[in-house]
Amino acid sequence: xxxxxxxxxxxxxxxxxxxxxxxxxxxxxxxxxxxxxxxxxxxxxxxxxxxxxxxxxxxxxxxxxxxxxxxxxxxxxxxxxxxxxxxxxxxxxxxxxxxxxxxxxxxxxxxxxxxxxxxxxxxxxxxxxxxxxxxxxxxxxxxxxxxxxxxxxxxxxxxxxxxxxxxxxxxxxxxxxxxxxxxxxxxxxxxxxxxxxxxxxxxxxxxxxxxxxxxxxxxxxxxxxxxxxxxxxxxxxxxxxxxxxxxxxxxxxxxxxxxxxxxxxxxxxxxxxxxxxxxxxxxxx
Length: 285
What we know:
Blueprint lengths: L1 E5 L10 H9 L2 E5 L9 H8 L4 E3 L1 H6 L1 H5 L7 E5 L7 H12 L6 E4 L4 H4 L14 E3 L10 H11 L4 E5 L1 E2 L5 H5 L9 E2 L2 H15 L9 E6 L7 E6 H4 L9 E5 L6 H7 L6 H11 L3
Parallel strand pairs: 1-4, 1-5, 2-3, 2-4, 6-7
Antiparallel strand pairs: 7-12, 8-9, 10-11, 10-12
């Protein structure tokens, strides 16, 4: 059986008791290491689990899944996922491959906390969130703005938008690749400030007021950990905010922000007086 196990958001101790029992008995243990990362390293996981952990990068999961599934129709294999097992379509695809395998490989999923639910720590109601949107790193010649359209749809309905920020782990250096050499770039993790700045940059082009300087937003970092950070303000303010180490996410507040939400979120405001002023002018129903 393939056990797809959610690890939660922070460290090795966030795994469920059921998940830990499976890990310690499994034939092999894989850790999906590219859609998200834990705040602890591989050695710390192995020490706590009492088992060696095989890092499964993008190439292995997407192109060499047969290695992961080998023998899983007869023995237990654990596939560990940061957050919740189905927080990324990659893991749905892996479960589908188990169904299509001959003979079919039975699967079991053990859920855990993910950013999609943990973001409720901001005080914004999970019932009032629309589509979740990904923000990728801009380059000099590639600045995709399709995220803006989805944010606009949420804004039109008054919904909050959770922005999942780009991470680059084991990314090949394209210039070296062109020379026939495989060299990986250092890991990079997008910050709340970078996300806010890119949103403002696209707003300059679109000019629809969706991601304006005065739009209210909440930046979060390392949710679920002992040193989690939550900061609220305008996008302009968040573009200059420093929330420290990864991982970061950002929420663009919807126009129908309830008074109860406002009362809670304002406690995280960088400038509470300004936050209140903007909310009363543009958000209060």
